[in-house]
Amino acid sequence: MSLKHGSIARLKFRNFLTYGSAEVVPGPRLNVVIGPNGSGKSSILCGLCLGLGGTPSLLGRADDVREFIMNEKNEGYVEVEVVSKELEERSAIREAGAMRA
């Protein structure tokens, strides 16, 4: 089953909160993120929100996007790949430059 227009095709994290380097590829239907406390479930949701243009204040977790960079790292990013009907391809939205310490 292919992904529909507007679907999240991929999330990529680099030095973001609990993730040094990670990629999440959701399926075409319902996706559930489960795991023990501190395993990074909220980090995935924060990355999705910030990657799609949300602000840190919306998350109530930090005042500045730089606070989402992993400890002891100078920069990080979140990349969200979205299926685009108009382009008939996947478009990547990358929140990078603003996440430099």
Characterization of this structure:
By secondary structure, the protein is an alpha+beta fold. The chain has one domain (8-99): P-loop containing nucleotide triphosphate hydrolases (Rossmann fold), CATH 3.40.50.300. The chain is 15% helix and 30% strand. The protein has 2 helices and 4 strands. It has helices at residues 41-51, 56-59, and strands at 8-16, 19-24, 77-84, 89-95. It has a 4-stranded antiparallel beta sheet with strand order 2-1-3-4, covered by helices on one side. A hairpin with a 2-residue loop joins strand 1 (8-16) and strand 2 (19-24). The chain is globular and about 40 Å long. It starts with 7 loop residues before the first strand and ends in a 6-residue tail after the last strand.
CATH top level class name: Alpha Beta
CATH superfamily, called what?
P-loop containing nucleotide triphosphate hydrolases
Rounded mean pLDDT score: 86
Helices and strands, in N-to-C order?
A: EEHHEE
List the helices and strands and how they pair.
Blueprint: E1 8-16, E2 19-24, H1 41-51, H2 56-59, E3 77-84, E4 89-95
Quick description:
15% of the residues lie in helices and 30% in strands.
Keywords:
alpha+beta; four-stranded antiparallel β-sheet; 101 residues; 2 helices
